[in-house]
Amino acid sequence: MRQFILENEIVKNGLIKIEGKNFRYLRQVLRAKPGDMINVRLRDGTLNNATVAAVDDKAKIVTLQLCADTGKSITHGVQASEFDGLPECEYWLFQFIPKPQKFELIVRQATECGVCVIVPIIGEYTEKSSVASLLGAKRERLERIVKEARQQSGSPVNTKVLEPMSLEKALELWRGNLPNGGAENSADGEGSCVAFVLSERGDCSGNLRKVIENAGGCEKIRRAGIAVGSEGGISPDEVRTLESKGLFKPIHFAVNILRCETAALYGIAAVQLEINQSI
């Protein structure tokens, strides 16, 4: 665990009482004991050091005390505090809904990669049962997956998984959140945006590197969108809609045919790599 994310816990006089599932996680999984140090992500998004001040196994309460001192962490390797700070570019994943297990894996991996918003899209090839698995109380499982992935990866990005929606509503949401009202480049200092749809067809004209360079690279790009299909991919009509209404550029990677969960991770990594290296 690179960080411990607070949910409903209250900080009072610098002390935090951890109970329930989080107590079991700290005590039984991480074997936390008095004196151990933990990176704690507060509800306002800030990251603080905390020490395990007390452990009451009878009452099942772990008490943490916020501090500015650094010490020995209860986990090994790089800690969240060593790379904390929100990335300048905000990443959105438009995922056409696959089967539940695959979608959960995609959510976990996208969260670890620092994706800000995951938009589940009800596409032509989406099964009704898969949509139902993302509604109501079943969304609590996705929230747990996001929290676990952030704690393990140390991501400072508060990843959000939205309610399933149609492609048209997803594009309306995307255009409404773009700098300069949806223009690819902004002259008023708001930055620029790029958007890509992964295509299985090798005849698409999109060039990932060229689009990112034309948008100004990492110095100017403030939002990037990646659209990925479900098990059946994305229909030609849906690709055309993404192009015409969302300004998405179809791109094709010259690799083997990828499963949707592999394609999502591959696409996110490729876009992040090009943006980060476009200095």
Describe this structure in words.
With 279 residues, this protein is of the alpha/beta class. It contains eight helices and 13 strands. Helix 2 links the parallel strand 7 (90-96) and strand 8 (117-122). It starts with a strand and ends with a helix.
Tell me about the biggest sheet? 7 strands, parallel
- Unreliable sequence segments: 181-189
Q: Radius of gyration in whole Å, from Cα?
A: 21 Å
Can you give the helix content as a percent range? 25-40%
Task: Summarize the helices and strands and which ones pair or pack.
Blueprint: E1 4-5, E2 11-12, E3 15-18, H1 20-29, E4 37-41, E5 47-56, E6 61-67, E7 90-96, H2 100-112, E8 117-122, H3 128-132, H4 139-153, E9 160-161, E10 165-166, H5 167-176, E11 192-198, H6 208-214, E12 221-228, H7 236-246, E13 249-251, H8 260-277
Parallel strand pairs: 1-4, 7-8, 7-12, 8-9, 8-10, 11-12, 11-13
Antiparallel strand pairs: 2-3, 3-6, 4-5, 5-6
What is shown here, in short?
By secondary structure, the chain is of the alpha/beta class. Helix content is 32%, strand content 23%.
List keywords for this structure.
single chain; 279 residues; alpha/beta; seven-stranded parallel beta sheet; six-stranded mixed beta sheet; 8 helices; 13 strands; 32% helix; 23% strand; elongated
